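S.,

As promised, the 5'-O-[(L-methionyl)-sulphamoyl]adenosine run. Input:
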Amino acid sequence: MSKYYITTAIPYVNGNPHVGHALDYLLADVCSRYQKSLKNEVRFQAGTDEHGNKIYQKAKETDVPVQEYVDKNAKKFQDFIADLGVEYTDFIRTTDEDHERRVQQVWEKMADHIYLAKYDGWYCMGCERYVTDKEYKENNGICPDHQKPYEKLSEENYYFRLSDFKDKIREAISSHEILILPEYREKEILKLLDDSPDVSISRPKSQLTWGVPVPGDDNQVMYVWMDALSNYITVLGYPENDISDFWPADVQFVGKDILRFHAILWPAMLMALDLPLPKTIVSHGMILVNGQKMSKSIGNVVDPLEVLDKHGDEAMRYFFLRHIDTFADSDFTWDKFEDAYNNELANDLGNLVQRLATMCKKNEFELSSKEQFDFSDEYKALMNEFKFKDAFDYAWEKVQAINKRIDDTKPWMLAKEGKTDELNKVLEELVNSLLKATIHLSPFLPKTSEKIFAIFDGEIEPPKEPLFPKN
Ligand code: MSP
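Predicted complex:
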């Protein structure tokens, strides 16, 4: 048994969760359930990013004290994760006292690589990111993600000397000491790394009050990303506790929009702290709606609670893990969601379970030998490479193959003709195939898998209600 550490990006709590936020959790949950099946001891972090001007201003707009505002929204994220059937082990909020204290210690430990200087440049509050002059020009002064003009900043800040680590980061990424997935993002990151200046890591208190104070300087507050990235280790107790049982992380799940922070600034911080680097960073794509980026101004934001209300958590997991690609951008539309639910979940799987269990019961069939089921090598290879959608497809093909086998072997004919031995043999094969497919489905659809195992355990009893009722 080995220890396995999985992390997820911590969302800003400046609003409600939207469907885009589901991906980090779902991918991490699949990974966690799979690793647990392999008998590894998993630690799975989730949390919320609660500092910065973006959140502060949102709270001010709603006229609620900031702490109250972030408390309320953090709770919504916690509820949302639970509603997805996701089981994490640790939840961290960047406003937790433990985190704030530890982040200050992290800062002090990096002191050799920090200096004070004047920043004259651009900032995007939507991204909470400093923008280079080159980018400013390329984007004509407007953030393409947020469609808002960059702000001009002219202030004294602390800087983190990224230049101390650039060569080592390049080497770590190229040698796959840190494996960036999908691999085609590696080049992009190396290019960005070449263009990255030292990073401003604080703001004057006159400009930012809602953040962790810089230790030893009453006039400065830490830049949100410094604070936020540290969560992956402060949650384990760093630097107060020895974290070597679980750090380095085996995998960190993030969206492609924030890969740059995780593949450049974060490794540099770890190097400054003399800590090992994460083994893998998986960057997933964006969820689009009818081909467009979700945005409040377009008014196309999909509320995940509405998706959950429609057909429940297993249906949401099904769609977001099989019809949303693990790595590339993918489209959510209600039509696609309904089609997948009716044609695949309800027909391919729900009907199969109902049909097969009914045939078994009618013919008083019970499994004579229960095979030992393991993940197949092909499936394991896909899961180990974090190709979760492909692994899910593989499991689903097994489900479809059983449907085909039923049509080919026609057990109802065998029953009608009184060919009991042959019928029992066919049912034995079909039930075992279904149980084998179900093992492969279990990281993706844990509740459904449990139901299927229960139905076919001992005396076979068809479900009273269809697994996926049509409406
Ligand atoms: N607070 C930072 C992360 C700090 S991690 C140390 C942040 N927050 S976020 O709320 O903007 O995004 C949280 C996660 O949700 C990120 O992984 C981001 O990529 C993901 N997504 C946000 N919108 C998304 C889609 N439309 N589609 C898929 N994932 C998206 O960035």
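The chain has a mean pLDDT of 96. The chain is about 45% helix and 15% strand.

- D.
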